[in-house]
Amino acid sequence: MQGTMAASVCGYRVALPKASINCRAQPKAKLSSQVVRSAGLKSSARRAAGSLGSKFTGEPVVYQHARFDPLELKRRNGGIYAIAAPVAPYALEDAEVRARLAEEYGFQQIGEPVPENVTLKNVIDSLPKEVFEINNFKAWRTVAITAVSYTLALFLISKSPWYLLPFAWAYAGTAATGLFVIGHDCAHKCFSKNKLLEDIVGTIAMMPLIYPYEPWRFKHDRHHAKTNMLVEDTAWHPVMRKEWENYPKPLKSFMEWGMGPLRPWASIGHWALWHFDLKKYRPSEQNRVKTSLAAVFGFMAVVWPLIIWKFGVVGWVNYWLMPWLGYHFWMSTFTMVHHTAPHIPFKDVKDWNSAAAQLGGTVHCDYPKWVEVLCHDISVHIPHHVSQKIPSYNLRMAHDSIEKNWGKHVNKCTWNWRLMKTIMTQCHFYDEEKNYAPFDDGLEVESKVIGPLRKVMPNTA
After folding, report:
1. Among 43, 69, 84, 129, which residue has the fewest nearby CB atoms (within 10 Å)?
2. Are 235 and 229 a contacting pair, CB within 8 Å?
């Protein structure tokens, strides 16, 4: 029938969206096995999970494997709320499904699955040789841009009235992210042909961020080698349910906040846990780690007291802490958007494929131009995962080549609230069938942290 259909779900009368569907009435107790056939979709699209807007929740309703997956419709404090479930991986072969999910998740395009016979070497070999060339002028130009923009940011902070300080802090945090990108190029050995100079520049660039260069480099190399590999990836890994069950209640609450409302600053936790513990590094790495730790502690011992002596504790907050929090906003946002989406799976080592992980499992996201300039195009991230030897100033050239040769496999978006809402409210637990599940998946009571976040975050794309 056409139009709005009333149905009984968990004892509630709800209005399903306008659609062309045929269904049989069944007892409430059999809802979980109720079949909804969509005459308006291809069989593969029905199988995969077409989604339609729900009038009673404002959230998308998903039909999965030709079954009415309750989306999962559940009682929540006297009402019903919905969790949109990702579809089975094979469904991404269907163009209609990809387009539907792209709309639902806040993407411009969800790429076709990368064929198993495509290797990462195939992708690298398709790139122009120029993208790997180190250009000293362009490298030092990034240093000049960051030095000037960060100096300007500090000047703006010094001159801004209190009501304009948040804008000055935001600009300073974005400029400070440029320091990280310079260190990032140095760590990947694509800043200069002089490797000692690279390590010196990388260490100095990361000092104001209190980011120890060598420890970060060692762990970051592992992220590139094992991107989206279950257990092994060191960046933005989903929570494993078995581990969660053993967490004490305070840690569970901390995790809900950290992967929910505070996720744009979650890199602070990663920074604190991974980069200051010598035990996490091999004996052959520890001398270099100690050098980096000495550099950041030296910065803290010298520069922080000078700021406090000259401007007081409020000055330390204005000139260092708030820009540092702004930097972590971008550090966290870039990383989670690059690697977290309901359709991007984490794979066990036996099923992991490097081309699928680096080309098809990484996201290109467009941000405002001023952000991309100050952050040296770090958001152009797919070519960086295809090869870490591409300098930041050549990433756009490499991306254009990937679009030309492999564009149908590319995931891309423009930063938007729906994208952030999807990540922050859905992508928590590792789920073998659905890739991700939210923290309150399977519970009768909605999370007191994630639930309100679903309600207050905008759903605009």
Report:
1. 129
2. no
Q: What is the pLDDT of residue 197?
A: 97
Rounded CA separation 205/211 (Å): 9
Is 402 a domain residue? yes
The closest alpha carbon to 36, from 12, 86, 81, 71, belongs to 71
Beta-bridge partners for 370: none
Dihedral Cα 246, 76, 420, 354, nearest 10 deg: 50
Backbone angles phi, psi at 342, to 5 degrees: -60, -25
Residue type (1 letter), 460: T
Q: Please indicate, yes or no, whether the overall pTM of this predicted structure exceeds 0.85.
A: no
Q: Are 95 and 34 in contact (CB under 8 A)?
A: no
* CA 212 – CA 199 distance, rounded (Å): 11
Convert the pLDDT of each residue in 228-269 to its tens digit.
999 898 888 899 999 999 999 999 999 999 999 999 999 999
- For the segment 254-310, what is each residue's pLDDT rounded down to a tens digit? 999 999 999 999 999 989 988 999 999 999 999 999 999 999 999 999 999 999 999
Confidence bin at 80 (pLDDT 50/70/90):
very low
Tell me if 255 sits within 8 A of 269, measured CB to CB.
Answer: no
Listed residue (207, 216, 209) closest to 187, CA to CA = 216
The answer as to whether 376 is a domain residue is yes
CB atoms within 10 A of CB 280: 15
Confidence of residue 119 (pLDDT cuts 50, 70, 90): very high
Residues 197 and 284 in one domain: yes
Cα distances from 277 to residues 213, 236, 286, 295, 328, in angstroms, run 14, 19, 10, 15, 20
Provide the residue range defining the domain that includes 6: 1-88
The confidence score (pLDDT) of residue 93 equals 87
| H and E: helices and strands count for the chain | 18, 12
pLDDT in tens, 362-386: 999 999 999 999 999 999 999 999 9
Instruction: Give the number of C-alpha atoms closer than 13 A to the C-alpha of residue 339, restricted to the C-beta side.
Output: 25
CA nearest neighbour of 166 among 30, 318, 43, 391: 318
CA distances from 131 to 127, 260, 372, 386, 397 (A): 7, 37, 18, 12, 7
| Rounded Cα distance, 128 and 171, in Å | 34
Element of type H or E holding 386:
helix 382-386
Q: Are 326 and 175 in contact (CB under 8 A)?
A: no
Indicate the DSSP class of residue 234. Answer: -
Query: Phi and psi for 429 in degrees, rounded to 5?
Result: -80, 150
Based on the domain organization, do 129 and 80 belong to the same domain?
Answer: no
SS3 137: helix
The residue written with tokens 């969800």 in the block is: 110
